Amino acid sequence: MKKTVAILLFIILLLAPAMITANDAQSTYDYYDIPELVMVRAQIIDMLYEGETIFGFTYQVFTAEIRSGQFRGETVETVNHFTGHPAMDMIINPGDRIILALDIMDNEIIAANPADFYREFHLYILIGIFALLILVIARIKGLKAIIALGLTVFLIAKVMLPGILNGYDPLMLAIIISIIVTAITMILICGFNTKAFASIIGTIGGVLVAALISIWVGHAANMTGLSSTEAQMLTFVVNEATFNFKNLLIAGIIIGALGAVMDVAISIASAMEEIKANNPSISKAQLIKSGMNVGKDVAGTMTNTLILAYTGTSIPLLLLFLAYEQPYIEIVNMELMATEIVRALSGSIGLVLAIPITALVYVALMNRKSSN
User: Fold this and answer.
1) CA angle, 336 as apex, 334 and 337 as ends, to 5°?
2) Is the whole model's pTM more than 0.85, yes or no?
């Protein structure tokens, strides 16, 4: 009995400081109050000190000046914790510009933690260089291309993605957005003419072929659309809508292939228009053959572009397979790997088929225009 009482007294003595601290905090904030999280830009001024936790991990305490938001101009202390993992640790030095996560309660900052480095400025510089180069080289058409790109980003960010979150079918949204983006881009750059309309139909035809192949292979190979970490995380999103992950996968394939297919279609249509302008008496068969010859060269490089683009994003995964000596039968049957193969090859098939579609449609529209 005495031993039990002694143990209880010992536990109370251990918990007393924590209980006092909790009571003090309760007097300032209600237990159920949740601070508001606000992200702001900031610049590190100085490092106050560096120490180690009881678990042996290093931490640093910095002073930082807030550079945006309602607390702009204020100086706060922020603690940078190290875990020993390079993907999670931030190496911060005085003068660095970072993003601070502020915990706000009763219009006061109760905590400030480094969230990430500030990278916007450099991204804006890169965007500026891209816009300047395209304007200098392509001039008016470059300006039209920038406008088309802006509209594409707007439609995806403000129409397609919110629509998917609100429960609309991602496959149908991707097809509709692709048609709108293709029409806007081709008409803006080429105007209302045979070249634009042939390019539009060729692009839509190639993209629809890629979608149909993806649907067929996805169903036949029992692909769930949940191979990526991001897709798996979506299953935890608290939302009234339920995601169709198979269609979400196909929607990604369509949007990913759209740019390359548009590039091929406009290349074929432009080449055929130049050939026709320089040789008005050329026969339909010869014009189609010329368009197909141009298409062969374009297809050879553009299919490489798609394959290499998808391979480039998978290099860490491929290195993991190599490092752990995964057997071929396991690699090729993994849904993650199968998804990337379907993504690359279905887009490439759509790209290749866009060539004859564009060539045939161009000649058909040209003949109709001549007869009128």
Assistant:
1) 70
2) no
